[in-house]
Structures are given as C-alpha cells and as structure tokens.
C-alpha cells in the first residue's frame, strides 16, 4: 500500500469513528451537547484504558492535569462528560457471558438458566456531574436571550452589546440606527454559526444569558474518586 493510499484509508477510519461518536453523543445529550468536552471525557488515555488493560489513571499524552491548571472551566466540562467506565466493563462482561451461554447451548450441552441481570454500577462521579450541570450547560455559551417561536437570529438579538460599554461607572450606549445598520461579513458568519452548533437548542433557549455559577475549586480534584 502506498503512503497516499494509507493516508486516505486512515483518514476515512478517523472520520467514521468521529461521526459515530457524534451520533452517540447527540442521542444522549441532544441539544445540550458540547462535543469537544464529550470527546475529551471519553478519551481512553484520560480514562486509563489501553486496549483490554485498565490502568485506573491517565496515561500517555493525556492533558487533563495541564488543562486543570491552564483552563479550569474546560477541565470540569471534561469531567462532566466522563464515561462511567465501571458500567462499560459490566456491560462487556454481560455480553461475553451471554455469548458463552449461547455457544454452550448450540453445542448440545445442558441448558443453563440465564444469570440474573445485575444492577447498573453507579457512577462515582455522579455527584460532581450533578453539581456541575448548570455550569456546563451555560458557561461560555453566546449570551443570546431566549428566542420566541419562529424568531430568527440577527445582529440586535445576538451582538447588540457590541455598542455598549462601561466607563466611569456609567453604561454608555451608541444611538445605532436599526433601519440602516449593516453587519460585517465576520458578524454574519458568527450569527449564522449559532444555527450549526451541537448545543444550538440550548443557545436558542437562552442558556448563555443565564447565571452559570462558578466551577468547583481545582483543589477538589484531589477528592475525586480514584478509579
């Protein structure tokens, strides 16, 4: 295989894996999804998984420790989307047991009663995720007020604060003509981009304009579950 063919083949594999991840993430989080944080929270190096080996700690080129120092909000969003790795292992064990049972029955052996379905493993990070939910769903999103049904995005309901400033303890406002205003190409691209985000539903509901609160102190990471 030539280098060019291998490059194209590997690129196809990466694209399809990314597409499958996006579809799974949308099905789980729908219009509240932050796909970059979802991908980071499901990274095997961050979860401590290497093939069939489970290290129970980050390995390789994982950036979570550096991210917790340089970009605390993004780090806690990663924690919010962290996969419940214990539940995944439980599901894989159940599938392996079911496959082994079907194989023994097809070989004419003694029929076995199916094992009782165990209760799902609780996510040890669930408490952190519940407390972080308002922050994750609101922080850093465009500050757009909640849209009415059928209302379209335009400059004055998305970027109107561009002509406001605080100086000398006063709120200064430019007298802008709405009838003659023309947005720049960059402004139009940004306005339209809000229709094509994975969290568009949350933005149009005004999530970015609501108080997001503050993330936990980074010292709290020391008390996180060590899986």
Short description:
This protein is mainly α.
Quick tags:
227 residues; mainly alpha; two-stranded antiparallel ribbon; 4 strands; 45% helix; 5% strand
Q: Describe the sheet with the most strands.
A: 2 strands, antiparallel
> Helix and strand succession?
HHHEEHHHHEEHH
Helix amount, in percent? Answer: 40-55%
* N-to-C span: 41 Å
Major sheet strand order: 1-2
Indicate the proportion of strand residues. 5-15%
The Cα radius of gyration reads 24 Å
User: Averaged pLDDT, please?
Assistant: 83
Overall SS class:
mainly alpha
Structure summary, number of beta strands? 4
The shape is elongated
Low-confidence spans: 219-223
- Count, helices: 9
Walkthrough of the structure:
- This protein has 227 residues and is mainly alpha-helical.
- The chain has nine helices and four strands; from the N terminus they run αααββααααββαα.
- A two-stranded antiparallel sheet has the order 1-2.
- A hairpin with a 2-residue loop joins β1 and β2 (53-54).
- α4 packs across α5 and α5 packs across α7 (126-138).
- It is elongated.
- The model is unreliable at 219-223 (pLDDT under 50).
């Amino acid at each position: 295989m030539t280098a060019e063919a291998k490059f194209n083949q590997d690129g196809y594999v990466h694209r399809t894996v990314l597409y499958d991840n996006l579809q799974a993430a949308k099905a789980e989080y729908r219009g509240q999804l932050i796909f970059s944080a979802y991908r980071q929270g499901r990274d095997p190096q961050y979860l401590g998984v290497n093939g069939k080996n489970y290290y129970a700690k980050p390995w390789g080129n994982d950036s979570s420790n550096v991210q917790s120092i340089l970009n605390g909000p993004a780090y806690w969003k990663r924690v919010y989307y962290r996969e419940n790795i214990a539940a995944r292992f439980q599901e894989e064990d159940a599938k392996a047991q079911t496959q082994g049972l079907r194989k023994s029955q097809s070989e004419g052996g003694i029929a076995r009663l199916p094992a009782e379905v165990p209760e799902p493993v609780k996510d040890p990070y669930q408490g952190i995720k519940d407390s972080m939910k308002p922050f994750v769903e609101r922080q850093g999103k465009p500050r757009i007020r909640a849209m009415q049904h059928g209302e379209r995005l335009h400059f004055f309901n998305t970027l109107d604060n561009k002509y406001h400033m605080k100086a000398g303890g006063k709120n200064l406002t430019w007298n802008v003509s709405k009838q003659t205003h023309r947005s720049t190409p960059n402004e139009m691209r940004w306005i339209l981009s809000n229709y094509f985000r994975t969290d568009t539903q949350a933005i149009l509901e005004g999530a970015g304009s609501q108080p997001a609160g503050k993330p936990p102190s980074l010292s709290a990471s020391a008390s996180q579950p060590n899986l």
